[in-house]
Amino acid sequence: MTPAYAELCITTNFTFLRGAAHPEEFVLRATELALPAIAVTDWNSLAGVARAWTALRNLREDKDMAHLHAQLPKLLIGTRLILQDSAIEWLVLPVDIAAYHRLSQLLTRGKLRAKKGECLLSQEDLLDAQDMILIALPPADLGTAYAQISAMQRRFPGFVYTGAAPRYDGTDQAWFDLCADLALRASAPMVAVGDVLMHRASRRPVADVLTCLREGITIDNIGTRALPNAERRLKGVGDMARLFRNHPAALRRTVQIADRISFDLGDLRYDYPDEANDGELPQARLERLARAGLIRRSKGAAPDRYQGLLDKELSVVAELGYAPYFLTVHDIVAYARSQDILCQGRGSAANSIICWALGITDVEPSMIGMVFERFISRHRREPPDIDVDFEHERREEVIQWIYDRYTRDRAGLCATVIHFRTRAAIREVGKVMGLRADVTAALAGQIWGTSNAGTDGALMREVGLNPDDRRLSQTIALIREIIGFPRHLSQHVGGFVITRGRLDALCPISNAAMDDRTCIEWDKDDIDALGILKVDVLSLGMLTCIRKAFEMLKKQGAGSYTLDSVPQEDAATYQMLQRADAIGVFQVESRAQMNFLPRMKPEQFYDLVIEVAIVRPGPIQGGMVKPYIRRRQKLEEPEPFGPALEAITRKTLGVPLFQEQALQIAQVGAGYSAEDADKLRRSLASFRRMGTIGQHREIFVQGMIGNGYAREVAERCFGQIEGFADYGFPESHAAAFAMLTYVSSWLKCHHPAIFACALLNSQPMGFYAPAQIVRDAREHNVEVRPICVNHSEWENTLEKRTDGALALRLGFRQIKGFREEDADWIARARGNGYADVESLWLRAGIRPAVLERLAEADAFASLGMTRRDALWDVRAIRAPAPLPLFADPLDGEGLREPAVHLPNMHLGEEVVEDYIATRLSLRAHPMELLRPKLPGLTPHATLLQVPLRRITVCGLVITRQRPGTASGVVFLTLEDETGVSNIVVWKALYERFRREVMGGRLLRVTGRLEREGIVTHVIAERIEDLSHHLASLGHPLSEAVGKTIAPADDAPKKRNVPTARHPREQAKRLFPSRDFH
Fold it and tell me: What residues does the DNA polymerase III alpha subunit finger domain cover (predicted)?
């Protein structure tokens, strides 16, 4: 009789660059092999166990996998400890939840001693391994193993075993005999382990590539570090029985060990933080704060509807015990507001009147149809999810306050798993396989954004490679396999786990790469699966921008504003948006949104809610956009679906745009319970990936047919709901964002100088670079003044003009590589102004390198100095800094007077220097200078007037987009001196002109002009890359001045200028675009 076998040693790909299979793949393969149990034992980590546990749960719940349910394996949670002072590696498997807590804390201890990604543990640490199965994996030299194993057996009798893993080198039986002898002498019974790296033999090449990446070698130099065969795959009991035919008891013990272990990851219980508040119970405190907040926010007695909603929500919260969670978020928001940090809740939390009453969200209940079940459900019994955005420049203050208040023992950021995406896979695998750097760079350069798409023959031919080459085809196959593998853990953008007890009892905590940050090992999907609370402390650049704008308004005496005190329903603001005048405006500044605004013609706040939500993958995939616009324009009537469904979609003209509507349609139309409707919403995406969407479609359709709806109507409704699997917004989230859309629109409309200044001072953020923000401000009659040593501060500032209007003064922060510290020194020492380079150097005490950056940015122009004059004076400085005791500006020490007359620069050279130093120019647009060389072009500003025909346009590429919903279509935005044009590149044309579209910075496009109202597009037919013309505008200033300086003088210092020799590469660095996907 063949003995049973449980695999107790599996290394997944969460042991980064070592394991060659995903945890989910091991679970599925173990099920196919009918193994009774498997243990995930990643090295010094529990990072992969949650994925394996979730995969097992999903298999158990998947009805399509019912034929495998009887052979689902038991999952054992463990780790493989690599100690600093021992050659023995230890498999550690906690037998119960208390032992698991100790293991998690032991790992935390080792991780907090080390830098990110490492764990420092010793034999002494292992002495805390009470109630854990300890399986020693001895080294090849067994000399020292006996003493350590026997010592552990004496400390933990009955828990220590000797592991025997096959070597697959022809000496296995002799090795097993040695291990058996060691086990007998140490009284630590021998256990069979596979030391598994992959779920199937086909992953052996991937395992070798990972070894090369880990060791920093190529595949040609891997030598004995390569796997000799594919035997380190997950094996069934038959294969293992043949291997251990002389030691059958070692196999039986694996199952006995699995039977001893009672701990399951689902046993973990998360306790909400419950900060004492003078003995007041959490529910009582929540009710007190919420009722007081409701009165405050209602500015008096709250409407009966609001009171009823609050009573209902408080009842559900009391039943589910969620009061501490709400209080935690309230405390975080209250702290931020006490520090004048702008913040706002978003997402499904805006469905909660409790959140509104507590001041967490700002969307008034009357603005949207609140669906509290979208936020919290009695049936779901999962923790609610509140996302709060904070100013991106000040969020760190909030994060550190959380650590201080709750301590690092109880609070930590979630992890984010960084995976191999296509570009990284091409570069890293290509290097391992010996491809030249220029080849991998060419391949990677043709991949859009952070795509996970693989490479194909056409792509290789595009860059001059032969896809039939054996080494190249092997490389491409390996790239495809490794895409999606985890590369390392990073920190989540702001998801905090905060606990009542010790956080490290739930999951190991490690140091983050950033100072003063600690993270757990699980990501947001892992903790969601385990029912662990996460508070999202997110950052939003627009909140920074709005807060800075409010401060400027107050400073200019134009009023004191908050998010909810900005004048509402302002006609001029909506008229501005109807013209698609939205550069810089939150959420509606993209090409798609700006094209949609003139068709939408927003007139009131709820129109903005729809605008934010409708230009999204979900509504687009669901075919909801065109019907909505036709109905809004009175070109068609909503379909008569019956009073029940019409009531749900009345505000959206019969088109379901929001997730809340999807839930209501499932309930009212198809007879779903609230629980089943929410399950449908949450499951659509995963079911689509697993290919079982048809089953849910039929249940939904039959439910609607049973309620009297036609099959055609039912199928259309499901198709619309199915779109939400591709990212549809909840109404509450759209409303929260729409508030910021309106406030930023109002600022742009009524205070364009202040808005532009705040935008520039909040970079990096948004859709457009500073050059486009400055151009837009000037088009709105804002005078923009250049950087000046006698007037600029670090931030961009506002200056009063003689006519009382505000001018925008560019700040030192616009200079590439300039430090805020140097800007502060310049401002403090300025006094009545600097007369020349020498006085600035002597009084501010800044280094010549900083002076050089100022000269390159033309910051001495107000002193009557050209760029070249200023740079000459800077180059003449000998000392790195003035000596304070002898800093007499009259003595001339440290300077030489210029001895030559420097030629003036022509306009093209000045523009190039502007872009090199600040990435923008106030003098001229490059296209203005190049237009005489490029006849036959249609200026962008005339596209509304010229006849609809084939035209040619040309401009700098300022944005590229390739949305996932656009079926491979690429959208380009080109800018000339008159404005912008929108270019549509169909997929077939993109494949033909891929190199130009991806790499060009100045494109000439010939195509068909199309126009709808005030929205114009050019449907591209031919694309030319004219980037080389940009390099002809001028030569780098350092070269020009350097030629003038005598050979005996100091050599010119390196500067932040393009170093690529090809004009196209120079253009990429001088005129970068912002690309989105």
Answer: 542-708
